[in-house]
Design goal:
The structure is a single chain. Helix content is about 25%, strand content about 15%. The N and C termini lie far apart (about 85 Å). It has helices at about 25, 45-50, 65-75, 85-95, 105-115, 170-175, 190-200, 215-230, 240-250, 320-335, 380-390; strands at about 30, 35, 145, 150, 270, 270-275, 275-280, 285-290, 295-300, 300-305, 310-320, 345-350, 355-360, 370, 375, 395-400.
Length: about 425
Protein backbone atom coordinates (compact mmCIF):
# COMPACT_ATOMS: atom_id res chain seq x y z
CA UNK A 1 0.00 0.00 0.00
CA UNK A 2 1.37 3.43 -0.95
CA UNK A 3 2.48 5.76 1.82
CA UNK A 4 -0.20 8.27 2.72
CA UNK A 5 -3.04 6.13 1.39
CA UNK A 6 -5.39 4.64 3.97
CA UNK A 7 -7.54 1.57 3.57
CA UNK A 8 -10.60 3.81 3.60
CA UNK A 9 -9.23 5.61 0.54
CA UNK A 10 -9.40 2.39 -1.44
CA UNK A 11 -13.04 1.59 -0.68
CA UNK A 12 -14.59 4.14 -3.05
CA UNK A 13 -16.13 6.15 -0.21
CA UNK A 14 -17.20 9.66 -1.21
CA UNK A 15 -16.31 11.04 2.21
CA UNK A 16 -12.75 11.78 1.00
CA UNK A 17 -14.23 14.16 -1.60
CA UNK A 18 -16.00 16.17 1.10
CA UNK A 19 -19.41 14.67 0.36
CA UNK A 20 -21.63 13.42 3.20
CA UNK A 21 -21.99 9.65 3.14
CA UNK A 22 -25.57 8.59 2.38
CA UNK A 23 -27.22 5.46 1.05
CA UNK A 24 -27.89 6.91 -2.38
CA UNK A 25 -24.28 8.01 -2.94
CA UNK A 26 -22.86 4.67 -1.80
CA UNK A 27 -25.23 2.78 -4.05
CA UNK A 28 -24.36 4.80 -7.18
CA UNK A 29 -21.66 3.22 -9.40
CA UNK A 30 -18.44 5.04 -10.40
CA UNK A 31 -17.85 6.28 -13.92
CA UNK A 32 -14.30 7.35 -14.82
CA UNK A 33 -13.39 7.78 -11.17
CA UNK A 34 -16.30 10.13 -10.37
CA UNK A 35 -19.44 9.13 -8.53
CA UNK A 36 -22.67 10.54 -9.91
CA UNK A 37 -24.56 11.38 -6.73
CA UNK A 38 -28.16 12.49 -6.46
CA UNK A 39 -28.65 15.33 -4.04
CA UNK A 40 -25.20 16.92 -4.62
CA UNK A 41 -25.95 18.85 -7.80
CA UNK A 42 -25.20 16.05 -10.31
CA UNK A 43 -27.64 13.87 -12.27
CA UNK A 44 -28.05 10.31 -11.15
CA UNK A 45 -27.05 7.92 -13.90
CA UNK A 46 -28.99 5.01 -12.39
CA UNK A 47 -32.51 5.91 -11.16
CA UNK A 48 -33.11 2.23 -10.46
CA UNK A 49 -30.27 2.22 -7.93
CA UNK A 50 -31.78 5.17 -6.14
CA UNK A 51 -35.22 3.66 -6.27
CA UNK A 52 -33.91 0.50 -4.65
CA UNK A 53 -33.23 2.35 -1.40
CA UNK A 54 -36.38 4.44 -1.41
CA UNK A 55 -39.66 2.69 -0.44
CA UNK A 56 -42.45 2.79 -3.00
CA UNK A 57 -45.54 4.63 -1.70
CA UNK A 58 -48.63 2.54 -1.15
CA UNK A 59 -52.29 3.42 -1.33
CA UNK A 60 -54.69 2.79 1.52
CA UNK A 61 -57.11 -0.05 1.02
CA UNK A 62 -60.36 1.17 -0.39
CA UNK A 63 -63.34 -0.38 -1.96
CA UNK A 64 -63.71 2.39 -4.56
CA UNK A 65 -63.04 1.42 -8.21
CA UNK A 66 -60.54 4.30 -8.62
CA UNK A 67 -58.41 3.08 -5.70
CA UNK A 68 -58.50 -0.44 -7.00
CA UNK A 69 -57.19 0.66 -10.37
CA UNK A 70 -54.39 2.68 -8.74
CA UNK A 71 -53.30 -0.26 -6.61
CA UNK A 72 -53.28 -2.48 -9.67
CA UNK A 73 -50.95 -0.07 -11.46
CA UNK A 74 -48.43 -0.14 -8.57
CA UNK A 75 -48.45 -3.87 -7.95
CA UNK A 76 -46.95 -6.51 -10.21
CA UNK A 77 -49.45 -8.19 -12.46
CA UNK A 78 -50.31 -11.69 -11.21
CA UNK A 79 -49.53 -14.61 -13.40
CA UNK A 80 -52.38 -16.66 -14.73
CA UNK A 81 -52.71 -20.18 -13.59
CA UNK A 82 -51.87 -22.81 -16.11
CA UNK A 83 -55.03 -23.93 -17.77
CA UNK A 84 -55.86 -25.92 -20.79
CA UNK A 85 -58.71 -23.58 -21.80
CA UNK A 86 -58.13 -21.50 -24.96
CA UNK A 87 -59.05 -18.29 -23.09
CA UNK A 88 -56.30 -18.82 -20.46
CA UNK A 89 -53.76 -19.66 -23.14
CA UNK A 90 -54.49 -16.40 -24.94
CA UNK A 91 -54.19 -14.44 -21.67
CA UNK A 92 -50.83 -16.02 -20.84
CA UNK A 93 -49.54 -15.19 -24.31
CA UNK A 94 -50.49 -11.52 -23.80
CA UNK A 95 -48.37 -11.35 -20.60
CA UNK A 96 -45.22 -12.79 -22.16
CA UNK A 97 -42.91 -11.03 -24.62
CA UNK A 98 -43.29 -12.63 -28.01
CA UNK A 99 -40.06 -13.87 -29.62
CA UNK A 100 -38.93 -12.51 -32.96
CA UNK A 101 -39.86 -15.81 -34.58
CA UNK A 102 -41.86 -18.58 -33.00
CA UNK A 103 -40.27 -22.00 -33.30
CA UNK A 104 -41.93 -23.80 -36.13
CA UNK A 105 -41.26 -26.66 -38.39
CA UNK A 106 -42.36 -24.63 -41.41
CA UNK A 107 -39.76 -24.02 -44.12
CA UNK A 108 -40.50 -20.25 -44.20
CA UNK A 109 -39.81 -19.80 -40.47
CA UNK A 110 -36.63 -21.85 -40.67
CA UNK A 111 -35.31 -19.66 -43.45
CA UNK A 112 -36.22 -16.52 -41.53
CA UNK A 113 -34.38 -17.72 -38.40
CA UNK A 114 -31.33 -18.59 -40.47
CA UNK A 115 -31.27 -15.09 -41.97
CA UNK A 116 -30.85 -13.60 -38.48
CA UNK A 117 -27.50 -15.31 -37.93
CA UNK A 118 -24.43 -13.81 -39.56
CA UNK A 119 -22.11 -16.07 -41.44
CA UNK A 120 -19.31 -14.42 -39.48
CA UNK A 121 -20.77 -15.17 -36.04
CA UNK A 122 -23.70 -14.49 -33.80
CA UNK A 123 -22.79 -10.88 -33.08
CA UNK A 124 -24.05 -9.47 -36.38
CA UNK A 125 -27.56 -9.65 -37.79
CA UNK A 126 -28.52 -9.74 -41.42
CA UNK A 127 -31.87 -8.67 -42.82
CA UNK A 128 -34.50 -11.35 -42.40
CA UNK A 129 -36.74 -12.71 -45.12
CA UNK A 130 -39.81 -13.41 -43.02
CA UNK A 131 -42.64 -10.87 -43.03
CA UNK A 132 -42.78 -11.28 -39.26
CA UNK A 133 -39.35 -9.68 -38.78
CA UNK A 134 -38.97 -5.86 -39.19
CA UNK A 135 -36.33 -4.88 -41.75
CA UNK A 136 -33.50 -2.60 -40.55
CA UNK A 137 -30.61 -0.99 -42.38
CA UNK A 138 -27.58 -2.77 -40.96
CA UNK A 139 -25.21 -2.15 -43.85
CA UNK A 140 -21.58 -2.44 -42.68
CA UNK A 141 -19.86 0.86 -42.08
CA UNK A 142 -16.60 2.17 -40.65
CA UNK A 143 -16.67 1.66 -36.93
CA UNK A 144 -19.00 -1.35 -36.99
CA UNK A 145 -18.13 -4.22 -34.70
CA UNK A 146 -18.14 -7.74 -36.00
CA UNK A 147 -18.35 -10.72 -33.67
CA UNK A 148 -17.63 -10.50 -29.95
CA UNK A 149 -15.27 -7.66 -29.08
CA UNK A 150 -13.40 -7.62 -32.40
CA UNK A 151 -13.53 -4.31 -34.30
CA UNK A 152 -13.65 -4.21 -38.09
CA UNK A 153 -13.19 -0.40 -38.21
CA UNK A 154 -11.21 0.84 -41.16
CA UNK A 155 -10.17 4.45 -41.80
CA UNK A 156 -11.67 6.40 -44.67
CA UNK A 157 -9.72 6.18 -47.92
CA UNK A 158 -6.96 8.79 -48.13
CA UNK A 159 -7.72 11.66 -50.51
CA UNK A 160 -4.01 11.65 -51.41
CA UNK A 161 -2.80 9.51 -54.29
CA UNK A 162 0.99 9.89 -54.13
CA UNK A 163 2.57 6.98 -52.27
CA UNK A 164 4.74 9.51 -50.41
CA UNK A 165 1.69 10.69 -48.49
CA UNK A 166 -1.10 8.09 -48.58
CA UNK A 167 -0.16 6.27 -45.36
CA UNK A 168 0.99 9.30 -43.36
CA UNK A 169 -1.61 9.74 -40.60
CA UNK A 170 -0.56 13.31 -39.74
CA UNK A 171 -1.48 14.51 -43.23
CA UNK A 172 -5.05 13.13 -43.36
CA UNK A 173 -6.69 16.04 -41.45
CA UNK A 174 -4.67 18.49 -43.55
CA UNK A 175 -5.87 16.93 -46.81
CA UNK A 176 -9.49 17.07 -45.59
CA UNK A 177 -9.17 20.74 -44.60
CA UNK A 178 -9.49 20.15 -40.85
CA UNK A 179 -5.97 21.29 -39.98
CA UNK A 180 -3.25 23.62 -41.26
CA UNK A 181 0.36 22.90 -40.28
CA UNK A 182 2.87 25.70 -39.76
CA UNK A 183 5.97 26.67 -37.80
CA UNK A 184 6.39 24.57 -34.66
CA UNK A 185 4.67 21.51 -36.14
CA UNK A 186 6.65 18.31 -36.26
CA UNK A 187 6.15 14.70 -37.19
CA UNK A 188 6.25 12.18 -40.01
CA UNK A 189 3.88 14.27 -42.11
CA UNK A 190 6.30 17.20 -42.05
CA UNK A 191 9.17 14.85 -42.90
CA UNK A 192 7.26 13.45 -45.90
CA UNK A 193 6.52 16.96 -47.20
CA UNK A 194 10.13 18.03 -46.72
CA UNK A 195 11.35 14.97 -48.60
CA UNK A 196 9.07 15.77 -51.52
CA UNK A 197 10.25 19.40 -51.62
CA UNK A 198 13.90 18.30 -51.65
CA UNK A 199 13.32 15.83 -54.48
CA UNK A 200 11.59 18.57 -56.47
CA UNK A 201 14.63 20.85 -56.20
CA UNK A 202 13.49 23.32 -53.56
CA UNK A 203 16.05 24.61 -51.10
CA UNK A 204 15.85 23.03 -47.65
CA UNK A 205 19.27 23.32 -46.08
CA UNK A 206 18.35 21.46 -42.88
CA UNK A 207 17.13 18.42 -44.80
CA UNK A 208 14.04 16.37 -43.98
CA UNK A 209 14.18 16.49 -40.18
CA UNK A 210 10.43 16.46 -39.48
CA UNK A 211 10.45 19.93 -37.88
CA UNK A 212 8.56 22.85 -39.41
CA UNK A 213 11.09 25.68 -39.15
CA UNK A 214 12.08 28.77 -41.21
CA UNK A 215 13.73 26.67 -43.94
CA UNK A 216 10.52 24.67 -44.42
CA UNK A 217 8.47 27.89 -44.56
CA UNK A 218 10.78 29.21 -47.28
CA UNK A 219 10.69 25.97 -49.29
CA UNK A 220 6.89 25.80 -49.07
CA UNK A 221 6.56 29.42 -50.16
CA UNK A 222 8.75 28.77 -53.21
CA UNK A 223 6.67 25.71 -54.04
CA UNK A 224 3.46 27.69 -53.64
CA UNK A 225 4.83 30.36 -56.01
CA UNK A 226 5.35 27.59 -58.57
CA UNK A 227 2.03 25.79 -58.02
CA UNK A 228 -0.09 28.94 -57.92
CA UNK A 229 0.77 29.66 -61.56
CA UNK A 230 -1.35 26.70 -62.70
CA UNK A 231 -3.42 25.88 -59.59
CA UNK A 232 -5.24 29.07 -58.53
CA UNK A 233 -6.41 27.53 -55.23
CA UNK A 234 -2.83 27.53 -53.93
CA UNK A 235 -1.92 30.66 -51.96
CA UNK A 236 1.61 31.77 -51.08
CA UNK A 237 1.54 31.56 -47.28
CA UNK A 238 4.39 29.28 -46.22
CA UNK A 239 1.88 27.08 -44.35
CA UNK A 240 0.78 23.57 -45.25
CA UNK A 241 -2.93 23.72 -46.00
CA UNK A 242 -5.19 21.41 -47.99
CA UNK A 243 -4.65 23.14 -51.35
CA UNK A 244 -0.86 23.10 -50.94
CA UNK A 245 -0.77 19.46 -49.86
CA UNK A 246 -2.97 18.37 -52.77
CA UNK A 247 -0.73 20.30 -55.18
CA UNK A 248 2.30 18.54 -53.70
CA UNK A 249 0.49 15.23 -53.98
CA UNK A 250 -0.12 15.93 -57.67
CA UNK A 251 3.28 17.36 -58.64
CA UNK A 252 5.81 15.49 -56.48
CA UNK A 253 7.61 12.52 -58.04
CA UNK A 254 7.01 8.98 -56.86
CA UNK A 255 9.03 7.77 -53.86
CA UNK A 256 12.66 7.21 -54.79
CA UNK A 257 12.52 9.55 -57.80
CA UNK A 258 13.62 13.16 -58.33
CA UNK A 259 12.11 15.91 -60.42
CA UNK A 260 8.44 16.61 -60.93
CA UNK A 261 5.58 14.47 -62.24
CA UNK A 262 4.14 17.25 -64.44
CA UNK A 263 4.23 21.01 -64.98
CA UNK A 264 7.86 21.01 -66.17
CA UNK A 265 8.66 23.93 -68.49
CA UNK A 266 9.60 23.02 -72.08
CA UNK A 267 13.28 23.27 -72.94
CA UNK A 268 12.59 25.86 -75.61
CA UNK A 269 12.83 29.65 -75.42
CA UNK A 270 11.56 31.74 -78.34
CA UNK A 271 11.68 28.63 -80.49
CA UNK A 272 15.32 27.84 -79.64
CA UNK A 273 16.38 24.81 -77.59
CA UNK A 274 17.94 25.56 -74.21
CA UNK A 275 19.92 23.43 -71.78
CA UNK A 276 19.00 25.34 -68.62
CA UNK A 277 15.95 27.25 -67.39
CA UNK A 278 16.37 29.43 -64.30
CA UNK A 279 13.01 30.22 -62.63
CA UNK A 280 13.76 33.25 -60.48
CA UNK A 281 10.60 33.59 -58.37
CA UNK A 282 10.50 29.94 -57.27
CA UNK A 283 14.32 29.74 -57.00
CA UNK A 284 14.87 26.62 -59.07
CA UNK A 285 17.21 25.73 -61.94
CA UNK A 286 16.12 23.08 -64.49
CA UNK A 287 18.83 21.14 -66.34
CA UNK A 288 17.96 19.35 -69.62
CA UNK A 289 19.94 17.01 -71.83
CA UNK A 290 20.63 17.73 -75.50
CA UNK A 291 17.31 16.09 -76.43
CA UNK A 292 15.28 18.37 -74.17
CA UNK A 293 14.67 15.78 -71.45
CA UNK A 294 14.83 16.89 -67.83
CA UNK A 295 18.01 15.74 -66.06
CA UNK A 296 17.54 17.34 -62.64
CA UNK A 297 16.26 20.37 -60.74
CA UNK A 298 18.43 22.36 -58.32
CA UNK A 299 17.67 25.13 -55.81
CA UNK A 300 19.18 28.54 -56.46
CA UNK A 301 19.53 32.02 -54.99
CA UNK A 302 19.09 35.07 -57.21
CA UNK A 303 19.65 38.82 -57.11
CA UNK A 304 18.12 41.20 -54.62
CA UNK A 305 15.59 43.86 -55.51
CA UNK A 306 18.44 46.39 -55.67
CA UNK A 307 20.68 44.14 -57.76
CA UNK A 308 18.23 41.89 -59.64
CA UNK A 309 19.01 39.03 -61.95
CA UNK A 310 17.79 40.05 -65.41
CA UNK A 311 15.49 37.73 -67.31
CA UNK A 312 16.15 36.75 -70.91
CA UNK A 313 18.03 34.31 -73.15
CA UNK A 314 21.71 33.95 -72.36
CA UNK A 315 24.54 31.63 -73.33
CA UNK A 316 27.50 30.07 -71.55
CA UNK A 317 30.56 32.12 -72.51
CA UNK A 318 33.20 30.32 -70.41
CA UNK A 319 33.59 27.59 -67.80
CA UNK A 320 35.85 27.97 -64.74
CA UNK A 321 37.01 25.03 -62.65
CA UNK A 322 37.59 25.11 -58.90
CA UNK A 323 41.07 26.65 -59.03
CA UNK A 324 39.91 29.44 -61.33
CA UNK A 325 36.75 30.00 -59.25
CA UNK A 326 38.77 30.32 -56.05
CA UNK A 327 41.23 32.68 -57.68
CA UNK A 328 38.39 34.88 -58.90
CA UNK A 329 36.84 34.94 -55.44
CA UNK A 330 40.10 35.92 -53.78
CA UNK A 331 40.73 38.65 -56.36
CA UNK A 332 37.23 40.18 -56.40
CA UNK A 333 35.94 39.60 -52.87
CA UNK A 334 38.99 38.66 -50.85
CA UNK A 335 37.35 35.28 -50.22
CA UNK A 336 38.37 32.36 -52.41
CA UNK A 337 35.24 30.38 -51.43
CA UNK A 338 32.66 33.03 -52.31
CA UNK A 339 32.01 31.52 -55.78
CA UNK A 340 32.08 27.95 -54.54
CA UNK A 341 33.71 25.27 -56.64
CA UNK A 342 32.74 26.25 -60.24
CA UNK A 343 31.70 29.26 -62.34
CA UNK A 344 29.75 29.38 -65.60
CA UNK A 345 30.13 32.88 -67.05
CA UNK A 346 27.10 34.08 -69.02
CA UNK A 347 26.54 36.60 -71.80
CA UNK A 348 23.41 37.71 -73.61
CA UNK A 349 22.43 35.62 -76.61
CA UNK A 350 23.47 38.46 -78.92
CA UNK A 351 27.01 38.45 -77.44
CA UNK A 352 26.71 41.33 -75.01
CA UNK A 353 28.35 40.77 -71.64
CA UNK A 354 25.75 40.23 -68.89
CA UNK A 355 28.00 40.45 -65.80
CA UNK A 356 26.09 37.42 -64.45
CA UNK A 357 27.20 33.89 -63.75
CA UNK A 358 26.00 30.56 -62.51
CA UNK A 359 28.29 29.61 -59.62
CA UNK A 360 28.55 27.79 -56.31
CA UNK A 361 28.36 29.30 -52.84
CA UNK A 362 29.90 29.34 -49.39
CA UNK A 363 26.50 30.08 -47.81
CA UNK A 364 24.18 27.19 -48.77
CA UNK A 365 21.66 28.15 -46.06
CA UNK A 366 20.75 31.24 -48.14
CA UNK A 367 19.60 29.25 -51.17
CA UNK A 368 15.96 29.83 -52.00
CA UNK A 369 16.25 33.57 -51.42
CA UNK A 370 16.99 36.85 -53.24
CA UNK A 371 20.43 37.60 -51.84
CA UNK A 372 23.00 37.88 -54.65
CA UNK A 373 24.39 40.77 -56.68
CA UNK A 374 22.70 39.40 -59.79
CA UNK A 375 24.42 36.05 -60.20
CA UNK A 376 22.57 32.75 -59.72
CA UNK A 377 24.02 30.77 -56.81
CA UNK A 378 23.78 27.00 -56.42
CA UNK A 379 25.09 24.46 -53.98
CA UNK A 380 28.61 23.33 -54.74
CA UNK A 381 27.35 19.84 -55.60
CA UNK A 382 24.82 21.27 -58.06
CA UNK A 383 27.21 23.65 -59.79
CA UNK A 384 29.63 20.78 -60.44
CA UNK A 385 26.82 18.86 -62.20
CA UNK A 386 25.89 21.96 -64.23
CA UNK A 387 29.53 22.71 -65.08
CA UNK A 388 30.17 19.16 -66.28
CA UNK A 389 26.93 19.00 -68.30
CA UNK A 390 27.23 22.31 -70.16
CA UNK A 391 29.56 23.58 -72.85
CA UNK A 392 30.39 27.05 -74.11
CA UNK A 393 27.59 28.26 -76.38
CA UNK A 394 24.79 26.35 -74.59
CA UNK A 395 21.71 28.48 -74.06
CA UNK A 396 20.37 29.40 -70.61
CA UNK A 397 16.87 30.87 -70.31
CA UNK A 398 16.27 33.05 -67.27
CA UNK A 399 12.56 33.66 -66.56
CA UNK A 400 10.45 34.96 -63.70
CA UNK A 401 8.07 31.98 -63.74
CA UNK A 402 7.89 28.61 -65.47
CA UNK A 403 4.83 29.70 -67.46
CA UNK A 404 6.73 32.59 -69.03
CA UNK A 405 5.26 33.22 -72.51
CA UNK A 406 8.72 33.06 -74.10
CA UNK A 407 9.08 29.40 -73.13
CA UNK A 408 8.01 27.11 -75.95
CA UNK A 409 7.22 30.06 -78.22
CA UNK A 410 8.02 29.36 -81.86
CA UNK A 411 8.10 32.99 -82.97
CA UNK A 412 11.15 35.05 -81.86
CA UNK A 413 10.48 37.61 -79.15
CA UNK A 414 12.82 40.62 -78.99
CA UNK A 415 15.31 40.36 -76.13
CA UNK A 416 15.27 43.33 -73.80
Amino acid sequence: MRAGVTRADLTGSTSRQGLPPDPVTRATPWFGGHALAAGVGEPDAHPRTVASVEPRPTLALSASPADAKARAALEPRPALQVSSSPADARARASLESSPALALSASLADAKARTSLVSEDGFGVMKPGTSSRVPQHDITAHAGAVSGWGSSSWTPAPSPLGNARFTDVVQLSPVASGQEVLGPGSRGEGIRAVQGALLEMGFALHGGADGQFGPQTVRALRNFQVHASRTLPGVKVTGALDAATLKALDSLAPAPGARGQSRGIPPAVYEGQPVRVIVALREHRTFLYDTEGRLVDIFPNASGTQATPTRAGLKVVRSRLDQAAAEAAGARLWNDKHVFGTRILDLSWADGRHSAEELHGTNAPALLGMDVSHGCIRHSNEAIIVLHDALSAGDRVAIVEHVNDPHLGAAAPVPVS
